[in-house]
Recover the amino acids of this structure.
């Protein structure tokens, strides 16, 4: 069975399922974590933000390391870090240790995710590769769709620690049983890792998140918060200068001259900036304000995530009938409508009350999965396809991480750091209205930018890159 494509597929699918479950599961566990470890809101937020920040920051760097030193080797290291971080988090008796363990898990997740897709691409070819990546995308959707409900059941049966232990054990199983059977591969003529770009980008992102998370606790005018924001801006400026001078940059900034690519990245960033903060904070609202159990809260979130399992299949049909750009704009507009509609939530909200808005947001997300990546990659020259894919994924992860931090800062301010009423309902409604406005603006901007960069052939028809 060594080097068999089926083994690669099973290993990649198992590890891929564990990564989103670790994110959405943590969001359901936050209230329990705060109570058990007697931690304030800012410290508890780092359970999610620490994982997301390192995941986003190390995505491109670990991809380059995999090309240099071997995909299986970096995949194994990533699984080991993810599993070790998860087991450490499940045993943590202190919130600081838990936060550090989650950051470690994020680094491992980045290494495992980038290497997994490369291993899959190397093991399958032609139509088999297309089928393999279709299953791969469905698995990511399944992790997002059922992660909250799985986490809710784990919490009710074993406590919050199981939410971190279960994905870690899955990763450890893959590491011990399947990784020895995987083939090794490297990118011929692979370049070096852009460490200056990685360091400046990571530091800027962490400082920005630190400012938003700790701002309500320390005070927005506190010297340390002001210094964090100033340093984050300075590091972002340094990052741009480093990337412009680098022969092999982490971010190919010249792609930002392509209006269509920018429009698609904007759509991808805004969609996750609405979806992921809801995945993080809605379970807390349902358990602390509405008063439902963690299992019931997780089940309710299936309404938000289930469309990601079904609608990607419909997108391929739609793009044969209308332009892919139109489908993209509609998906962002649906997210905007759903966010505005979700302001009906309140202390007495039922699953039926939330079904419409959550399904609408999920519908917008589901229509965009796969489509945005295909358009983004198809809008850049083939030789830069990998760079384009890395940039859109990093844009997603960075935007969702910052969005979680910003939403958390707003809710911390309106609730006095307790994530409870009075203040939680009003704060969450304010956040939803802002999300709706931003998504609507993004839909308009995406339509204008994508149309400017639209090839004449597509302007006359309705094909999209990567689809038929």
């Amino acid at each position: 069975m060594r080097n068999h494509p089926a083994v690669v597929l099973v290993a990649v699918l198992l590890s891929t399922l564990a990564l989103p479950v670790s994110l959405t599961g943590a969001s359901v566990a936050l209230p329990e974590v705060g109570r058990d470890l007697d931690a304030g809101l800012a410290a508890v937020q780092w359970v999610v933000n620490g994982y997301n920040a390192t995941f986003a920051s190390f995505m491109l760097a670990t991809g380059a390391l995999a090309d240099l030193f071997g995909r299986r080797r970096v995949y194994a290291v990533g699984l080991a870090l993810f599993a070790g971080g998860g087991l450490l988090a499940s045993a943590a008796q202190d919130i600081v240790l838990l936060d550090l363990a989650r950051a470690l898990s994020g680094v491992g997740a980045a290494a495992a995710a980038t290497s997994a897709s490369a291993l899959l691409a190397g093991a399958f070819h032609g139509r088999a590769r297309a089928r393999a990546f279709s299953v791969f995308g469905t698995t990511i959707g399944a992790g997002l769709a059922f992660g909250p409900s799985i986490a809710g059941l784990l919490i009710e049966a074993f406590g919050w620690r199981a939410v971190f232990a279960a994905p870690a054990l899955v990763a450890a199983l893959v590491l011990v049983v399947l990784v020895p059977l995987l083939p090794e591969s490297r990118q011929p003529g692979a370049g070096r890792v852009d460490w200056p770009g990685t360091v400046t980008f990571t530091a800027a992102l962490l400082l920005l998140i630190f400012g938003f998370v700790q701002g309500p606790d320390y005070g927005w005018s506190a010297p340390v918060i002001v210094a964090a924001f100033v340093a984050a801006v300075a590091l972002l400026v340094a990052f741009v200068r480093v990337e412009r001078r680098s022969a092999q940059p982490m971010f190919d900034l010249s792609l930002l001259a392509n209006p269509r690519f920018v429009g698609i990245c904007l759509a991808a960033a805004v969609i996750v900036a609405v979806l992921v903060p809801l995945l993080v904070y809605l379970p807390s609202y349902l358990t602390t304000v509405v008063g439902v159990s963690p299992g019931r809260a997780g089940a309710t979130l299936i309404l938000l995530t289930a469309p990601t399992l079904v609608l990607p299949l419909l997108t391929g049909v739609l793009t044969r009938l209308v332009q892919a750009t139109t489908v993209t704009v509609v998906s962002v507009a649906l997210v905007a409508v759903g966010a505005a509609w979700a302001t009906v939530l309140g202390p007495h909200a039922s699953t039926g009350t939330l079904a419409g808005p959550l399904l609408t947001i999920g519908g917008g997300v589901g229509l965009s999965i796969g489509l945005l990546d295909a358009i983004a990659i198809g809008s850049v020259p083939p030789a830069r396809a990998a760079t384009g894919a890395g940039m859109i994924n990093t844009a997603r992860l960075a935007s969702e991480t910052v969005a979680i931090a910003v939403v958390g800062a707003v809710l911390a301010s309106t609730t006095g750091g307790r994530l409870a009423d009075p203040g939680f309902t009003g704060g969450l409604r304010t956040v939803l209205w802002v999300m709706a406005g931003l998504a609507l603006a993004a839909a308009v901007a995406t339509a204008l930018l994508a149309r400017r960069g639209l090839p004449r052939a597509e302007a006359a028809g309705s094909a999209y890159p990567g689809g038929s």
